Amino acid sequence: MVWVQPQAYFGILHQHIKALKMETGTLSAMIDTWSKIENTKVTKLDPSGNQVTLANGKTLSYKALVLGAGFDHSAEFVPGLAEFEEGPDTNNVFVHQLNDKRRLERNFYNGAIHQGGDYINYSPAVPYKGEGSDFYSLYYESLLRTDKMMGTAAAGAKIQYWSPNKFIYNFPYANEVAMEECEKRGVELYLGWELQSVREDAHSKVAVFKNVDSGETIEKDFVGANINPPSRQHQFLLDSGVCDSTGMVDVNRYTLQHRKFENIFAIGDCITGETTRTYTGAIQQNPVVKHNLLQYLEGRECNAIYDGYQYMPFYLGTSYGAGFSHLHDFEPASTNDSVPHYGVFSNLYFNYMMSNQQKMGEKYTNFAKSQGPPHYHFAARFDELEHNEYLQQRQ
């Protein structure tokens, strides 16, 4: 069985992975002897021949394949952004991308230094990596409001949210709540504008935007920005024939099994469907893929069902938060927007949210021999399809 994912997240957190060689015996003991990590890119997928070709020239054959390839996501997709990224954090331009642990340190003070002018929060066109987790505008507004009260920021300083999408969240319920909150708190929304490039002139930073409807281009000066660069489907997937007309891996949205190649399963950002692509969603898909993969290899029915659960944090300030969650077709989950947006419960939820997301990510990316979240100590079990309550409710 071959599992393809965009990067070895354990390696990012711990910097230890090099094929099977680990730095310590303790870490080596976490890896089963039959498993192998090839820390390189896939350049070709042949689903008919059950083979993948790697950038190092190796060809791997498989009985079953799991595609967790994510997106091709890079600052290089916005001309000029990589130059800002390579500079010090004092240039006040931050890239929303987790591809190196050093970025966590560089981005630590994003949004905190804003004494005047306009600060930009930018999300690219959907689908993209980090959907639902890159809306920091209300968090920034909270910081700026405090600075204005203390007299350390100009009265005319503003927070602006830009995106080529006509929404903040693809989830309609969440989008309505977020837009209403922005209106109340003076966050300016510029929807339908795609970022073309960024640069630094002699006396200012400049972003070039293009209107997605009219094609009009404008130049916008800014003092700081948090930019999520565009995401693209990996070319080897597009060339392989496993994608649908939208360029996404064509899987059954319930079983996550490919519609044409039954020995291929997919997980995470790369799969087809109208949804929000979140890290929490990929974690929820993991036990479904695991169960159905084992069922397939044993010649049994793939009966694990993914209900479409996705979770998005809603950062209301430096110590207040809420959360949105939905199932397939943007049906609100039972825990959707479950706390007030102010007061002690919002503060408690913020602390829970930050701690829970960090701990869940850590458990998902380590090599501890558990079942993995959300089932740490036991394997998820699933009803037979004819008895699945979720499917029965949707008939």
Automatic annotation (TrEMBL):
<dbReference type="GO" id="GO:0070221">
    <property type="term" value="P:sulfide oxidation, using sulfide:quinone oxidoreductase"/>
</dbReference>
<dbReference type="GO" id="GO:0070224">
    <property type="term" value="F:sulfide:quinone oxidoreductase activity"/>
</dbReference>
<dbReference type="GO" id="GO:0071949">
    <property type="term" value="F:FAD binding"/>
</dbReference>
<dbReference type="InterPro" id="IPR036188">
    <property type="entry name" value="FAD/NAD-bd_sf"/>
</dbReference>
<dbReference type="GO" id="GO:0005739">
    <property type="term" value="C:mitochondrion"/>
</dbReference>
<protein>
    <recommendedName>
        <fullName>FAD/NAD(P)-binding domain-containing protein</fullName>
    </recommendedName>
</protein>
<dbReference type="InterPro" id="IPR015904">
    <property type="entry name" value="Sulphide_quinone_reductase"/>
</dbReference>
